[in-house]
Each structure stands twice: as structure tokens, then as C-alpha cells.
Amino acid sequence: MRLSSCCLLVCLLLPLPVLAELRQAPEPELRELMQRTVAQADSFVDRFDAEVWLLDMSTRLKRYLADPQERLTLLRLVHQEARRADLTPELVLALIHTESRFDRFAISRVGAQGMMQVMPFWKAELGRSQDNLTDNATNLRYGCTILSYYLKKENSDLDRALGRYNGTLGQPQYPARVIGFWQDIWFVHP
After folding, report:
1. Helix or strand holding residue 130 (H, E)
2. Phi, psi of 140 (to 5 degrees)
């Protein structure tokens, strides 16, 4: 099968909202936000809160990542990037659970990469072709910034922001899945 036949076949299999999202250039405001935030960090205020949260989340994450050091490293990164982007870390965990089941090498059928399934065109948009989207820190920085932008754009409407993030705006399945994982597995009761 020739390359053009493969591209046509892939395009026929993709839902229309995903195709539309792939064809559109990112919004300039989102591009600027991504450029400003692709290099910052740090998050826990209280050491006790950090230890409690890390232990709790590590226990929940154990079935997806066996290595305790890998779990703690990831959880610190998730907390740091979520807080930096003004997101709830547990929501980010639910999104990662939905997108990749914590597989940092995941690649979607449309080419999205890493735990948060970030589209590689962002590297070119930001002039950062050297960035590795399978690097958890990089992937979380990009993904959290994008989700935060969409939450602000949608006036904190989580369903719409998640739909934009996934390229399925207006379709309830994806937001329902993320929110379901958040409520059933990752939510922390105050």
C-alpha cells in the first residue's frame, strides 16, 4: 500500500472532530501560553501534606506502575505541573489514566504521544523540535498547559474543556470517562 493510500485510509477512520482539530493551526493565544510555560516548576507547601498525598496516590497508582520510585517520581511531576497550571492533580491523573493508562510510550492512532497524549505538532509550533514527548516532565508540562488553557477558554466547564483537549468537543463519552476515573479512583475527599 502506497503512502497516499495509507493516509486516505487513516483519514477515513478518524472521527470528523479529530480531523478538523488536526487541520487547524493552534490558536495564537494558546501558542503564546505554551511558549511561556515550557520552562518552570515546584508545588507542595507543607511536607506533611506532600507525604500523605504521595503515599495515598502511590497506593492507587501501584496497579499501573509497579516500581515505587517510578511512581513517586511521576506523582511529584504530576503534582508540580498540575499546580503550576492551576489544575487539580487528581484530575490530571484521571486524564492520564484515560489517555494512556500511565504508559509514557503510548502513541495514539493520530500520533499523539506520551502519558497525556500530546500532539507532536506542538514541538514545531514552539520551535522546540528537540523536546521529547515521551519524557514525562515534558509531556506533563505540555498537557497540563493545554488543559488549563481549555478550562479557562470554556469558563471552567470541565466537559467542554476535556472535549477540546481530546478533539471531541460536544461528544459526552470522553469527558464522562475522565470524570468517571476521577470520581471512582483518583478523587481525594476533603
Report:
1. none
2. -65, -40
| 118, β-bridge pairs | 113
Question: Would you say residue 81 has pLDDT above 90?
Answer: yes
pLDDT band (50, 70, 90) for residue 25: low
Instruction: Output the nine-digit C-alpha cell for 174.
Output: 470522553
- Euclidean distance between CA atoms 92 and 144, whole angstroms: 7
**How many Å apart are CA 156 and CA 26, to the nearest integer?**
20
Q: How long a stretch of residues is the chain?
A: 190
DSSP 8-state assignment for residue 172: S
* Chain centre distance of CA 144: 6
**By CB neighbour count within 10 A (0-12 exposed, 13-18 middle, 19+ buried), where does 31 fall?**
middle
Q: For position 39, what pLDDT does the model report?
A: 35
pLDDT above 80: residue 28: no
Q: Which amino acid is at 144?
A: C
Q: How many CB atoms lie within 10 A of CB 12?
A: 8
Amino acid at 68: P
Class of domain 3-186: mainly alpha
Q: Are 145 and 85 in contact (CB under 8 A)?
A: yes
pLDDT at 142: 97
